[in-house]
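User: My advisor, Dr. K., asked me to get a structural model of this assembly before our group meeting. I'm new to this, so sorry if the format is off. These are the inputs:
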Amino acid sequence: MAVQVAEAPKSAIEPERPSFKPDLERIEIELLLEGIFRHYGFDFRAYAYASVRRRLWKRIEEEGLSSVSALQEQVLHDPGMMEKLLLDLSINVTAMFRDPNFYATFREHVVPLLRTYPFIRIWHAGCSTGEEVYSMAMLLREEGLYDRARIYATDINEVVLQRAKAGIFPLERMQEYTDNYIRAGGKRSFSEYYTAKYGGALFDQSLTKNVVFSQHNLVTDRSFSEFNVILCRNVLIYFDKTLQSKVHGLFYNSLAMFGVLVLGSKETLRFMSHEESYQQIAPPEKIFRKVK
Amino acid sequence: MSAYSIVVIGTSWGGLAALSKLFGALPGDFPIPIAVVQHRSKESERLLPQLLQDVTDLKICEMDDKDPLLPGTVHLAPADYHALIDEGMVTLTVEDPVRFSRPSIDLLFISAADTYRKGTIGIVLTGANEDGSRGLQHLVKRGGFAIVQDPKNAEIPIMPSAAIKAVPSAEVLSLEGIAARLIELTLEPVHTGRRTPR
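Assistant: The format is fine. Below is the predicted structure of the whole assembly, which you can bring to the meeting.
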């Protein structure tokens, strides 16, 4: 009898285990993110789950650990591990004139609108190390608009902002950027914008004359002005839909009527707050105009 | 109700011809979503979906971030983004290439298997590198079902050969065989004794 009793629950439980496991991982991940938020103040709780999971596992494997819980122990007790994880969780991949076709479209369809304004306020949200801010500054200068423009370039991460301010980018990427610049409709020679210095390409400092770099957290901070253009490309993809929608509320409230919102080429406004308040200019580029 | 929730497919060189043949043989009402990473250059981006749409009754969609995964639909990963599978949707990232690839087949497979576990079917087709084999290994470890195109009739056998080496238990089939097997697998009701390769 004892044997039967021992066996019965085992076979009854067995089929349920696989469906139980994913939930357990989710619990572990939610606990870790909650712990990070409460202990360190970084809030990744509303980040896109699949990409957070992927980056946590990358760290788990690199540390030779075997579970999210094992990582949690280290992260909560060792600020050094938190720092590593922070770098894993913040993606700072960018490039000058990234998606050249977007810049070409911006020149053609948005610049004429901007010409009608005496003063142009631009918010570049999630600017990372600044490559795309410099790109926009070049474009505006070539279109004769730079002197009446102010670009507010923000990121959550102070370290990348310092690099953006320094304006020194890897020399080895200049060929790629030159190609992008040409395809983006650049009107000069790209090499006029930088000099090889300090082991990198130092960009013309007058490009940042009208740029204000500052820390801003899209998750917790509020609007800080009214803008004619808001650029936020490939930043919201790291958020879940609820947080995306909340940030779109912030953008809507920060954008002047007929202002322009620019998203990454694979981002949409579908199911977002104020979706119906925008009109897409020149598809397939994700350039939207606030019309109501 | 199918025992499976998603099909994930990875391919590179020769992928267009292979995908055309495979999707041409699947019905428009295929019961579960299909997600595909086909390595390609940024420039070729706009051609691929149309070329595939011309030969299949399935709906071909290039993924936007947070697109819902739909039955009867092929969700194509866009050039220059990683595509991850989350519950009922895709999520895109632009983090660094993995094994020189963005999109990465490995990341697609791993994220699908982490989300749908034994409800995942992973397929590696023709290709000129070894992306996909680690992902397929992970997928099988999570209880998913692995299929690899027979390297003998793959345009470039490197990718399928690497996948078979990594997952010897994978079913090795021709493209016609894969289409037939997919229909069979997804017709199977939930509680039959489905074989999981180990």
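One thing worth pointing out at the meeting: The beta strands of chain A are 120-125, 149-155, 168-169, 194-197, 200-203, 211-215, 227-232, 255-263, 278-281, 287-290.

User: Perfect, thanks a lot.
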